[in-house]
Amino acid sequence: MAEYKGRYRFSFGPWNIDQGGDPFGPAVRKPELLKKKMQVARDLGFDGMQWHDDDVVEDLDKKTAAEISKTSKRVKKMLDDHGLEAEFVAPRLWFAPETVDGAYSNPDPKCRRYAIERTKKCIDIANAIGARNIVLWLAREGTYIRESKVGREGVLMIRDAINTFLEYDPQVRILIEPKPNEPVDSALIPTIGHAIGLSYITVDPRRVGGLIESAHSILAGLDPADDMAYALAHKKLWSVHLNDQGGLKFDEDKSFGSYNLRRAFNQVRVLEEASYGRNGEWVGLDVKAMRTQKQAVAWKHLRNSKQTFMDLLEKVRTLDTKLEAQFKAQRDYEELDRYIVAHLMGVKA
Ligand code: 3MF
Ligand code: MG
C-alpha cells in the first residue's frame, strides 16, 4: 500500500460560513466579513480557501476589467496576510437572469455567450489570486422536463465551452464538480463517470478532471469512496468536497462523518491509499452550519469536519491490514465486517 506520509492541506469556501437562510425561512445570522472568515480559516489550521468568482469580486457583472483586477489583488493580499492560499475559483453560473435555463447549454445563444464571458472573467480572477484550478459546478446544465432540451446537444455545448476555456488560458485546469439534481431535476453531467467521460472529448483531456463532493455522490445513489476510487484510477481526482448527507433528501452539506462514519472512513482510506495530496490536491470541505447554530459559534462544523477527517485518518493508519488480508483470504466477510465496526468504535472485535 503506497501511503502518503505528507501533510493533508485543508480548505473551505466563504459560503461555508453562512447566514442560515433556507427556501422556507430567512437568514438567522448576520453576514461575516471576509476578513473574519479568513481568521477562522487560519485559527482552525486550514491552509487555503476556495472561491466563487463573486466571492472575490462582488457584483462581478457590473465591474470593469480594471476594477476586477484591483479587487482581486486586494483579496490576494488579504490571503497572503493570513498565510492562506487560493485553491480554486468557480464561476457562479446559476444566479443571473441569463442562466435561468442553464449556462453553457442554455438554448439561447446570447445566454451562452454570457456564461462563457463570465467564466473568462473567473479565469482572470483565478490568475490574479494565484489559483490554477477552475471548478465548474454545472448547476443548471440540465432539465426540469426531459423534452425541454436535446441531451446530446447540451453535452456537446458544455464540451465546446470547456474547450474555449482551455484555449483561453493554456495553463488553466478545469475541475468538473458533478451533481445529479438540485436545482434542476436532471443534470446532464450527474456523476464523476460522466465528468471524466466528458474530459476525454475535450481538446486537452490532461487539463480536465474532477472534484467529488460526498453528498453529490450520495444523492446519485452512489458511494463517495467508490466514486473517488474511480476518479483516482483515471488520475482525475483533483479535489474533493467532503461532507455528509442523510439519504436522498435535499443537499444537506452536513459535517463530514456526522451521519455515516463508516462511509466517511472509507473515503479517507481511499484518499490515503492513493497518496492523495502528493500532487498538490487539497482536502476541501463543503459543509454548512445547522440553521440552529448561533452567530458566535457558526464555525464549529468546519472544526468538526477537519477533526473527524484526522481522527479517521488515525483509524485508517491503525487498521490491522494483516488481519484484514486474512479475513479476505478466508472470504470471511462477516468477520471483516465486525472487525471494521469494532475498530471504528474502539472496542474489541
Ligand atoms: C452545490 C455545491 C456548490 C459548489 C461550489 C463550488 C455552492 O451543491 O456544492 O456550492 O461546491 O459552487 O464549486
Ligand atoms: Mg460543493
Which residue ranges are poorly predicted, with pLDDT under 50 across at least 5 consecutive positions?
none
State the secondary-structure class: alpha/beta
Provide the succession of SSEs. EHEHHEHEEHEEHEHHEHEHHH
Number of helices: 12
The gist of it:
This protein is an alpha/beta fold and 349 residues long. It has twelve helices and ten strands.
Structure description:
With 349 residues, this protein is α/β, with parallel strands linked by helices. It contains twelve helices and ten strands. An eight-stranded parallel β-barrel has the order 1-2-3-4-6-8-9-10, surrounded by seven helices. It has a two-stranded antiparallel sheet with strand order 5-7. The longest helix has 21 residues, at 109-129. The two termini are 24 Å apart. The mean pLDDT is 97. Bound molecules: 3-O-methylfructose in linear form (3MF) and magnesium ion. The site of 3-O-methylfructose in linear form has 11 residues, from strand 4.
Index terms:
349 residues; alpha/beta; TIM Barrel; 8-stranded parallel beta barrel; two-stranded antiparallel ribbon; 10 strands; globular; binds 3-O-methylfructose in linear form; binds magnesium ion
Task: Summarize the SSE layout with pairings.
Elements: E1 10-12, H1 34-43, E2 48-52, H2 53-56, H3 65-81, E3 85-90, H4 109-129, E4 133-137, E5 142-143, H5 151-168, E6 173-177, E7 186-187, H6 192-200, E8 208-213, H7 214-219, H8 224-233, E9 237-242, H9 261-273, E10 282-285, H10 300-317, H11 321-329, H12 333-345
Parallel strand pairs: 1-2, 1-10, 2-3, 3-4, 4-6, 6-8, 8-9, 9-10
Antiparallel strand pairs: 5-7
Helix pairs in contact: 3-4, 4-5, 8-9, 9-10, 11-12
The structure holds 3-O-methylfructose in linear form and magnesium ion (MG).
